[in-house]
Design a protein that fits this description.
about 20% strand, alpha+beta, about 450 residues, five-stranded antiparallel β-sheet
Length: about 450
């Protein structure tokens, strides 16, 4: 790199002025002098001074030019990313001092840049691996930074944040920019205080706990927003509330019935043998119902926790189905329902806990008998599918609505909205968890007016 032209012109002008002064002085001296020897000596001295000054000027110019060129080269090298550049230290003392100062500056800059780079990588790694969403927005609620978790929550593609940050109109952000979120950011900037609230993000209906914190840097305002997905937590809370409500409902009826019957007996009905016998029988039935509810709740809790003991053995599933059908035969005959079972002589072995699988089959068959109209039919079939055995219980009852099918395996869920059925609403939930504990699956297929098909799959022996 050459010395800048303005520096060259400064040197030229300086030397020109110096030489002009010397020449003017010599001319004035020569004019006034009468001695030829003095005049000659003066002229020779002037010439020597001019030549010496020129040589010294050239040397200084060359030295300065070299240092400036080396400095420019070093600055350009560092600016290009070569942080390990070292200024050459060969030369005289002045050059060594300059080189030492430059290298110290370069080292300090290098250390600072590497610390910043390390901090940037650390921050980037933290943001990349965080489960919580992080957004940095400017004073106009435009996105400046967004980590992958926030992109997932807001439904933003990987290549979109940069486009969104340059948008001048927030409406161009489309459906992914939630109105509540934008309002919260603007309110945070307006009031300069941290705000927190739960926001429902559409269209996926994700509930996020949002905290917006105002930030200021170098005179600019912005907002740091953290988003925590609490949808599952809210669902658990809702399930807990529903559970308490359902248990209360299921216990309230028999308890109220028992209390009313006991009060009637205390009021004098106990003296009538027939009435007291009938009332005691009803009380006994209600107590059995409450005992069944408590037992099923304990069993479901054990299954859900994964601590249920499984006595796995090889069993013939066809033989098991026939035995269960015989135990419920009286219920089917009361409604004149024909129950078709697989051939017990056909060996179709599965690995399962015999007692618990019997419980599943009883639940499915009992439900089918309960909801199948008089003179209807129930067909139980078994088949082999890719190392699994599938058992299907099909009835010709009224069927189950598609919306109800999504919830039939939930605790306390009853298709009958009046909840007047005799069951507790826990049977299918228990059956599903039993099958899942065997690493199988339980499903339902149904259509209103065309009956229902409940199927479960178990590993073959």
């Amino acid at each position: 790199m050459n010395i800048p032209k303005f520096l060259q012109w400064q040197w030229i002008v300086s030397y020109t002025i110096l030489i002009t002064i010397i020449l003017v002085g010599l001319v004035a001296y020569i004019i006034n002098s009468k001695d030829a020897h003095v005049v000659l000596a003066t002229i020779i001295s002037g010439i020597i001074i001019i030549i010496s000054s020129s040589i010294i000027g050239v040397i200084i110019r060359t030295k300065t030019s070299t240092i400036i060129n080396d400095f420019s080269e070093g600055a350009r090298s560092i600016a290009g990313g070569n942080l390990d550049y070292q200024f050459p230290t060969q030369g005289d003392e002045d050059r060594k001092n300059f080189a030492s100062s430059f290298n110290v500056m370069a080292k300090t800059m290098r250390n600072n840049l590497r610390e910043l780079e390390s901090e940037r990588f650390t921050l980037s790694a933290v943001l990349e691996t965080m489960n919580d969403g992080v957004i940095v927005a400017d004073s106009e609620a435009k996105i400046i930074l967004m980590n992958p978790a926030a992109q997932k929550l807001l439904g933003v593609g990987l290549d979109e944040p940069s486009k969104l940050a340059k948008s001048k109109n927030y409406e161009s952000l489309g459906h992914i920019w939630d109105h509540e979120l934008r309002t919260m950011i603007l309110n945070t900037i307006r009031h300069a205080e941290t705000l927190s609230q739960d926001i429902l993000l559409q269209p996926d209906r994700i509930i996020v706990n949002t905290i917006a914190t105002p930030i200021k840097h170098l005179g600019s305002e912005g907002v740091l927003v953290t988003l925590r997905n609490i949808t599952e937590y809210q669902n658990i809370e809702n399930t807990r509330r529903e559970f308490v409500s359902n248990v209360s409902h299921e216990l309230r009826s028999p308890l109220a019935s028992v209390k009313a019957l006991i009060e009637t007996l205390i009021g004098g009905a106990i003296d009538d043998r027939d009435i007291s016998k009938d009332y005691l029988s009803r009380i006994n039935t209600d107590i059995d119902r409450m005992n069944q509810l408590v037992s099923e709740l304990l069993e479901l809790s054990t299954l859900e926790s994964g601590s249920a003991h499984m006595n796995i053995e090889t069993i013939n599933i066809n033989d098991l189905i026939v035995n269960v059908a015989r135990s419920l035969e009286h219920k089917a005959k009361e409604k004149h329902i024909a129950v078709s079972c697989p051939n017990p002589c056909v060996d179709l072995d599965v690995l399962a806990d015999k007692r618990k699988i019997i419980q599943v089959i009883i639940n499915l068959l009992d439900n089918a008998i309960r909801f199948t109209p008089d003179n209807g039919s129930i067909i139980i079939t078994t088949s082999q599918i890719e190392g699994l055995v599938e058992v299907t219980v099909a009835d010709d009852g009224p069927g189950i609505d598609l919306e109800d099918q999504k919830h039939v395996f939930e605790r306390f869920y009853k298709v009958d909205p009046s909840r007047t059925g005799t069951g507790t609403g826990l049977g299918l939930a228990i059956a599903k968890h039993i099958v899942m504990a065997h690493k199988g699956s339980l499903s339902v297929e149904s259509k209103l007016g065309s009956g229902s098909r409940f199927s479960f799959k178990l590993p073959r022996n």
